[in-house]
Amino acid sequence: MKLRFGLTVLVLLANLSSVFSQDAFGDGGALSYRLRLINEAGYQQLNSTPLNVGNKFVPQARYGNSFSSDLFLSWRDLAVDVKADVDVTDRNDPDFQHVMRELYFARSIDDHLHLTVGRRILKWGTGYAFNPTGVVEPTKDSADPSDRLNRFQGRQILALDTYFGSHSLTLLYANEFRLGEEFKWGQDELAVRFYSLIKGVDLSLIGHWKEGKKLKFGFNTAVTHGAHFEWHSEFLAQIGTSKLYHPVLQSTNSDTFFGESPYKQTYHDSKEVFYKLLLGIQYTFNSGPNLMIEYFYNREGLSITEWNRWRQFTLFHQEQITGSAPDPASYPEFYDALNTLNSNGTMRHYGFVRLYLPMQKSALELILLANLLDQSGIVIPTFTHFFNSNLSAWIRGSYFGGAHDSEFGMLFLKTTINLGIKVSL
């Protein structure tokens, strides 16, 4: 039933794109649209990590296919972006999902005031793979910063922008409330951004507060030198942190049993400054190639000592589970510990390199994401061919490398390969 409904929606979206023209309502109210159809098939070679022996503890799919239809419509001050997905893997039946990526009203009240209400995808940071000051942005995947499958979703906001000369001030309220059988109010969230262009430097000062979280302040910059060189930076800081940490990070005993839900706000009352720092440069060569290099530091991440404590604790309970007489008490300890892993980096120091080589009708992209503490990382090459302005296809691979006790060396995947095609109308 879900699959049949999903296919009906996809057909409807495709028909809408052919019915509405770019100027359907004339000069008095032009309706613009964008329809993107994406299909990507993938294969994943699993890693022989002790965290997932025999693919039993955290089962991973080996094969899969994802088809999505993304329709964006805008008319006067209104805009909506609806996305429908059908995903299937060797571990599950076809799964249909639909989401409202964006739905907002945006209007300029006068030459100095602009109002936005609704769900909208925002961009506050200046970084490419990491955005510590992107406090109201969708969470990025550092291994796929361009969001090739359009996974990003907007935030539910009420925002007022004021403009004066080369400066602007944004006041924003956000709340991720949920509508359904029962209305559920989310956490209150406030953000402010002051932007100024000072002698060629784009400077933004940012403040952010979320209910139950620490108050954060920071800034970001972007500077362009000529037609080739650009550098950017981001900094975000807080006193203490409300992040949850596993208690084993402060323990020297790997054979400990902590019980149910052991995570705590270990540094909530700390006077230490917990900060995130991004430094990046970008250079575009005369012939077109582009090189991007970024360094990211996250004080909320794990140190080498904490990583080793976590690893030894996790492996101890893994051995208790897989032994000749499995200990049931080790199951929750093992699975709770896995929540420490973060898909965007669990530790503190990371490097990112992206080389983009455009050709006549094709492009080659090479990405390296590296943990600078344990020298593990991911290499991601992508070759894209552009048949025309509306049709492109790509082949994308990834290789996870590192020692057996390193971050990327312990993750669940070893290599992946994806074949994709996109139609844009």
User: How far apart are the first and last residues' alpha carbons, in Å?
Assistant: 28 Å
Shape: globular
Mean pLDDT score: 91
Number of strands: 18
In DSSP terms (H or I, runs of 4 or more residues), the helix count works out at 3
Detail the poorly predicted runs: 1-27
Detailed description of the structure:
This protein is mainly beta. The protein is built from 3 helices and 18 strands. It has an 18-stranded antiparallel barrel. A hairpin with a 5-residue loop joins strand 12 and strand 13 (290-298). The radius of gyration is 24 Å and the shape is globular. The model is unreliable at 1-27 (pLDDT under 50).
From the structure above, extract its key features.
11% helix; single chain; 47% strand; mainly beta; disordered N terminus; 425 residues; 18-stranded antiparallel β-barrel
Helix-strand layout with pairing:
Elements: H1 2-19, E1 31-46, E2 63-75, E3 78-89, E4 92-108, E5 113-120, E6 155-164, E7 167-174, E8 189-198, E9 201-210, E10 216-225, E11 229-239, E12 273-284, E13 290-298, H2 304-322, H3 330-338, E14 349-358, E15 362-371, E16 376-386, E17 391-401, E18 413-424
Antiparallel strand pairs: 1-2, 1-18, 2-3, 3-4, 4-5, 5-6, 6-7, 7-8, 8-9, 9-10, 10-11, 11-12, 12-13, 13-14, 14-15, 15-16, 16-17, 17-18
Helix pairs in contact: 2-3
Provide a concise account of the structure shown.
The chain has 425 residues and is mainly beta. The chain has 3 helices and 18 strands.
